Structures are given as C-alpha cells and as structure tokens.
Amino acid sequence: MADLLSVRNLCSGYGHIPVLHDVSFSLPREGVSAIIGPNGHGKTTLLRTLSGLNRSWSGQIEFDGAPIPQSVEARARAGLVHVPQGDQLFMDMTVMENLAMGAYARPKGYDLQTGFAEVFDLFPRLAERRQQRVSSLSGGERRMVGIGRGMMAGGKLLMIDEPSLGLAPIVIEQVYDALRKLASTGAAILVVEENPSRIETVAERFFLMDGGKFEWTGDTEALRNSSDIVATYLGG
Description:
Blueprint: E1 5-14, E2 17-27, E3 31-36, H1 43-51, E4 56-63, E5 66-67, H2 72-78, E6 80-83, H3 95-101, H4 112-122, H5 124-128, H6 139-152, E7 157-161, H7 169-183, E8 188-192, H8 196-199, E9 205-210, E10 213-219, H9 220-224, H10 227-234
Helix pairs in contact: 3-6, 4-6
Domain ABC transporter: 5-236
GO molecular function: ATP binding; ATP hydrolysis activity; branched-chain amino acid transmembrane transporter activity
Keywords: Amino-acid transport, ATP-binding, Nucleotide-binding, Transport
C-alpha cells in the first residue's frame, strides 16, 4: 500500500531566512511517528509547511497518492489535520462549540454526536466541562480540547505539535495516555516532541531534526540503543 504522506526535498522558511533544508521522508497510513530534536531547529516549521500555513519554497509533497492541495482549507478537507502548538482555541466559546468547529470540513450529514462521543471517551474530563467556556479551563484541559478538535475533523493524518508543552507531569501523562488509546485504533498520527522519553512508548518510528534537516531516523528499538545520538542532539 502506498504511503499516506511523501515529502521530497522540501525547503521552507520565513521571509528570506531558510529553516528547512531538503527534508525528505514518508509516513504510512497507520501508526504513530514522531519528530524529535532541540527547540528552534525546524520541527514546528515542518508541520506548518505541511499544513500550508507556511509556503514551501521548493520540493514536493504528496498526500494520499496525489499532489497536496495548495490552500490550508483544501489540505484540511483532504484529511491533513494540524493541531498547532499552544492554546489556539476560541476562548469565549464553550468546549462543545470548539469541538464542533473542528468538524467544519466534514461532509454534510456527519453526526456530530458520534464525534463528541469519541472525544469524550478519550478525554472524560472534557465531558464534565462540555458547557464551560474554554477561557475557564486549565492548561491541560485546553490541550485536550485542541486535540479533540483535531479529532473532530476526521482526517487521515493528525499532526500534533508539542502536546506536552507547558504542562505539569501528571497532565502530560494523561495526554499521552489518550494518545496511546488513539494510536490503538490504527490512526495515522505525527507528533512533534523535544523530549523523546515522552513519546517513545507511543511512537513506532522517529525522525531526529537538527538544523532544519533530519540527522537520524529509526524505530523505537533503534532509538533506545542510540543514547549517543540522543546525548549529542538533545543533551540527555
């Protein structure tokens, strides 16, 4: 079966400043992949370029067997879903309203209640907070809303940028427990994380980014046997 996502020689950046340098990789149609590496070396830029928020300077991106559409909306409708870093939510809207916004690209006739049930099964806390404004939630609860909103899009690939950023350890574990459950359904997920210890029990394949390019790739076993790689690039 053909790869879900195929990227070849992708270059991008901001203004005249290059960030990504000839990045090439592919993702299968199922399972969890992780991009790890130090901060400020292109991980977020890669996700933004894949989702269309950043313009690609050169290279090719194919998604689901075809050249990827140009606009952000068209990419979302094609099934490439981006959960951005931080709490980019509708703060004056309720949890339910934020989740419903995630389903805007779904075909007509989609049963919102089915989507809500899937999100609440993964994040029971959100079921308790469903009628609260997002502005009243904790940081961890907001992160759950962000991931849940991405789930509501029903995409073919869910890209999540730094799901543990700024959260307390106990909340990080709750978020990753949910990702494990989501991964068990066979969903295709791409997670960006700085710390590989948080994602190594969830992901099956890893791409280590440094200086805007991939310096190493491997599976979980290879990562655990590559302490020198981790120490060199992540200081651990």
